[in-house]
Amino acid sequence: MGKVIYKLVNEAELFANLAKGDERAFETIYRHFSKRLFPYVLKLVKVPELAEELIQDIFVNIWISREAFAEVNHPTSYLFSIANRQALKYLKKVASDARILKSIADYAEASTNDTEERIIFRESVASVKAAVEQLPAQRRLIWELSRNEGLSHDQIAEQLQISKNTVKNQMVHATKYIRNFLDEQAGLLSGFIIILLYYKRL
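Now predict its structure.
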């Protein structure tokens, strides 16, 4: 017999069941509200992939703190407030990292002395290159044409005689791999930030 999914009829009851740890209620809430939250989060962070990751994080936090919903009178508004806090928290972190990276880059050009920040930045750049080297040949070529040469997806597709969708898919896989590679390296800044800012400086 298939798993039962609640219909979103009685919202208060649904969230009350979530507070009790009902996984079916949680799944129903996720299926319904993730679609509503995504455009809102995307408007804040601008990057679809990042918005999707934040939505996942938001619902993980919702499940972890599910008991709090027993006291919530307006769960929909509460969900959007959680999404807003999560997105702004990440944007604050991004802004902080951006300032750090800028100061590191400026200092590196003006000084020959090694500092902890310069070492972290240099290790981050080296790790990007190491991650790129581990990509499959075609994926690595597409990544380098996009990030190093600044070619558009259309230009890459034309140059390599492949479809634009292939270029897009290869870039998605490459970005995910490199970000995961960087996030696993101790002492490095966020993989997302390193990729975003490092390649903007090229």
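Residues 38 and 63 are 18 Å apart (CA to CA).
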